[in-house]
Design goal:
Distance between the termini of chain A: 64 Å
Oligomer: homodimer
Largest interface: A-B, 40 and 40 residues
Largest sheet of chain A: none
Number of domains of chain A: 2
Structural class of chain A: mainly alpha
Strand content of chain A: under 5%
Radius of gyration of chain A: 20 Å
Helix content of chain A: 40-55%
Order of helices and strands of chain A: HHHHHHHH
Number of strands of chain A: 0
CATH superfamily of the largest domain in chain A: Tetracycline Repressor, domain 2
Chain lengths: 209, 209
DNA sequence: TGACAAGTGTTGGCAGTGTCAACATGACTC
DNA sequence: GAGTCATGTTGACACTGCCAACACTTGTCA
C-alpha cells in the first residue's frame, strides 16, 4: 500500500469530501485532467467507488468543487500580490504585479487553471462560482484604480462603474498569455517569449468606438 | 436508419479516413469534444468499432487530424480576411480585420477551436501541426507589416525577423478574448462586452523592458 | 493467369469508466 | 432506547479505447 493511500478503520470516513478534493487537486497536476477518475480517487482514499456520489451529484460537480477551490487559491494569490505591505519591484504597477501573480499561479497548477477556465464553469450552479467572481472583480478593481489614477488598495465599490470592456481586454490578454504558455502552443523551435515580462505589462486598449 | 448514416455495400469503405474526419468535425460541434467517441463515429459511418485504427494510431492521433483540418480552415479564413480585393470596413486595419476573422472562426466552431488549442497539440508529430504553424506565421507577418508601416499583403519572408514578443502578445490577446467568449466565462449578469469590436482592436504592447 | 503480400475491415474480448438501485452501517435526535 | 437520516458498500449496466486474431479485397509480379 502506497504511503499516499489511507485505509479507513471506521465505516464512516468523516472528511471524505475534503479528502477527495485534496487528492483530486493532486491527481489533476500529476496525471492530467483527462486521466482523473473518481473511481481511482475513491480507491486511493480507501472508500468504495460510489462513495463520492454521497457528496457530489456527478463528476462534473466534483470538478466544479475543484475549480472553486482553485479560484479561492487564485484570489488569495492575486490579493497578496497587491497587498499594501508587499515589497514591489522597481517601477512595478499593481496591475503588472497582479499579472505576474496570475501567471505564476497558472504555471504552478496548469491543469487546475485549465479546469477553472473550461466551458464546464458556465454550467455550474452559483455556489461553485463565488470565488471565480471575486477573482474577476479583484482584477477589475485594480484595473479601474490604475485607470482613474487612484493609488493604494483598489476598492471596486467606491470606484464607480468600471470600464468593463477594458477589464475584459486585460483579462483576455493575460488569460491568453497563460494558456499559450502552459498548453505549449508556442512553437518550440522559435525563441521563447519572455513570459514573465509579458505578464507584467498588460497592454493598453485603444479607446473609442 | 438515419439519413446521416451510410451503409457500405462493399467490404472496403474506400474513403473511411476522410469520412471519419468529416463526421468527427460535425460531432465535435454537435455533442462536444468530451462526448466524441470513435466507436460511435465508426457506427454512424457504417463500419466496425475498430476500423478507425487502420487509419489512426489512437484517438489522440485522430483528434490531431481534426485539429490540423481546423488549422487549415483557420488559415483559409485569416488569409481571406486580408486578401487584396476584399472590401474593408472604414478605417479597418489588416490586423483588425484578421482579429475579427479569427473571432468569427472560433465562434462558428467553438469545440474545434478548443481542440486546436489544447495541450494535445504539443504532443503531436509535425505532420499534424503544419497548418497551425502557417496560421501563426500569417498573424506574425500581418503584425510585422503593421509595425513597420508596410502596406499591402504582408510577407513574413521579406520583413526581416519579426518582433516575436509583440506577436505573442497580440496572439495572446485575441486567443484569450475568443476563449472567454466561447467558454462562457464572462459573468452573464454583467453587460456583455462588445466582442466583435474588441477583436478588431488588437492593443499595443508597451515596448521596452 | 495465379500465387503472394499488403491494406483494410471484422469479431471477440479486456480493462477501465460514470452512474444507478438496493442494501448496510453508524451517528444524531427525541 | 427507537427511529431517522447521512454516509458508505455491493453488484450491475452501458459505455469507452484498444488489442489480437481472423477475413476479405486489391494490387503486384513471376
Amino acid at each position: 500500500m502506497s504511503e499516499t493511500e489511507t485505509r479507513k478503520d471506521t465505516y464512516h470516513h468523516g472528511h471524505l469530501r475534503e479528502e477527495l478534493i485534496r487528492r483530486g487537486l493532486d491527481a489533476l497536476e500529476q496525471e492530467g485532467a483527462e486521466a482523473l477518475s473518481l473511481r481511482a480517487l475513491s480507491g486511493s482514499a480507501g472508500v468504495s467507488k460510489t462513495a463520492p456520489y454521497r457528496h457530489f451529484k456527478d463528476k462534473e460537480e466534483f470538478l466544479g468543487a475543484l475549480a472553486d477551490e482553485g479560484y479561492r487559491l487564485l484570489h488569495e494569490a492575486l490579493a497578496a500580490s497587491i497587498a499594501p505591505g508587499r515589497k514591489r519591484r522597481r517601477a512595478e504597477t499593481p496591475v503588472g504585479a497582479m499579472g505576474r501573480a496570475y501567471m505564476a499561479f497558472a504555471v504552478s497548477r496548469p491543469a487546475l487553471y485549465r479546469l477553472m477556465n473550461s466551458p464546464l464553469m458556465c454550467r455550474l450552479p452559483q455556489e461553485y462560482t463565488g470565488w471565480a467572481r471575486k477573482s474577476l472583480m479583484l482584477l477589475a478593481g485594480t484595473l479601474e484604480a490604475a485607470r482613474t489614477g487612484a493609488e493604494g488598495s483598489p476598492d471596486v465599490r467606491q470606484a464607480g462603474p468600471p470600464d468593463l470592456d477594458a477589464t475584459a481586454a486585460a483579462w483576455a490578454y493575460i488569460h491568453g498569455l497563460v494558456l499559450i504558455r502552459i498548453d505549449g502552443l508556442y512553437p518550440t523551435d522559435l525563441p521563447e517569449p519572455d513570459w514573465d515580462r509579458l505578464a507584467g505589462v498588460v497592454p493598453e486598449l485603444p479607446t473609442g468606438s
